[in-house]
Structure formats: structure tokens, C-alpha cells
Design a protein that fits this description.
about 270 residues; alpha/beta; D-amino Acid Aminotransferase, Chain A, domain 1; Rossmann fold; 2 domains; two-stranded antiparallel sheet; 11 helices
Amino acid sequence: MKDYTRKIAESLHVCGLMNMQYAIEDGKVFVLEANPRASRTVPLVSKVCNTQMARLATRLMMGEKLEDLKLKDKKFKHHGAKEAVFPFDKFPKVDPVLGPEMRSTGEVLGLSEDFALAYYKSQEAAGSILPSSGAVLISLSDKTNLCDQAIEVGQRFQELGFKIYATEGTAKFYEKAGVKCEVVNKIAEGRPNVLDVILNKQVNLIINTPWARRDAVADESAIRKAAIKYKTPYITTLAAALDTVKGIAAAKAGKGEVKSLQEYHASIEEV
């Protein structure tokens, strides 16, 4: 990825900062876009790495050479997790679904030696307080129902003592994996349903991976709106769900004492 970034920057004749967007699937790296500009992520990365990127980029743009900056690779013992902050709670009647357009109003950062705890902190900073106990509502699409990651999510929540509510298909899937669930109806299947358990504050966390069917999309919209209204954390991907349950476990175990930014920076080693 460093090699790709260097080649793209040189071919575009970028002087200063460049924002790269990558995706990795099955070990293969995909370049999504290259923006020859700074982004809102720059100050966060600067804090994580203890490298004043805006200052260094300005020096380059003013005529200094790259070798003059004496930059070195660094080895980190901590992780930084960035989370976007969205204004959905200010617009309760608007479906809080994400699209390609930018809707975030800011970004926050979680730091820890443990990645899961860094993720946990980022959610807390964004105003989504993850529960340490209680109940979780899980509704997974057929596509995600078939993967080991989904099983791990259910097993870990069960090990932490959470009660699991699940829609019928998800509950059957989990029962085969030895994960106990209480079946709850979808909205069109009668009462009590998924909205009822949210409105009655019976659940402390919602995991709902998107479906493609039109009826399911309507259900998801109603669940999202209810989650925002009642301030219930809402997760739409298995990757985030797994990081969430790992973060909750790390927080319950008492990992990650409060440390200053200077303490994190002191642990960085130059390579």
C-alpha cells in the first residue's frame, strides 16, 4: 500500500498532502480514490502518529525537499479508531440511512493498546454508549447468516451474559450453533415484535444487517428510527458487531487505564 501510494502521488505530481482510500478483500488491495488534498482525518492521524502532517506538508509546499524533513518509519504499540458523528438525533423523522454523500458533522478518536477497546472508546466519544450487560436484538440477512463471523458474534454475547433476542430465521441459525435466543416477530408478523422490544426498552443494543427485499427495507427503516429515538446503539455490519462485542469484553475486563496523549507518543519507536 505504501508503494501504491508513492506511485500514485508521483504520477499525479502531488506536493503536500494526499488522501488515499483503499479497500482490502481476501488479501487483495483495491484503490478506491486518490484526493490530492488534506482531509478531516489528518489531525486524527497526526495525533495517533505524533507527526504534524499539516506543518510538514506546508514546508514541502513552500519549497523544502522531502529529504529535508528527515522522516522515518514508526512502530506503534497503540491503535487509533476513528468514528464519524452523525446528526440523526436532531432529525427524528428522517431515516438515518447512509449513502455515498457526506453526512457526518464531525469525527472522534479512540486510543488504546487494544484495538477492540480503541473501537469501544470511539463509540463512546461519538455518543453511542455500548452496554456492558442486558439484551441485544439480532436480525441478520441470509447472506450474513451463513458465515462463521455471525456465529462468533452470537457466541461472544452469550459468553458475556447478554440475553439475545432474534428474528425467526436468525434464531434458527443460532440454535444450530448452540446460541440460545428468544424469538421476536418482525413488524408484519404480529405483536410483540422488534419495535415493541425497542419501545419497551427491553434491548440495549441492536444488530441488523441489511436485506435487499422491499418489505425488509421498510422494517429496517422503522427499526433505525426507533433506535435513534430511544438512543439504542444500532449496528449494521458483522465486522462492527464483532468489534463491539470484543470492545465490551475488554472494557468489562478493566483493560485500558486512562493515559495521556504524551504517554502514547512516548511508546512510539522509530524504525
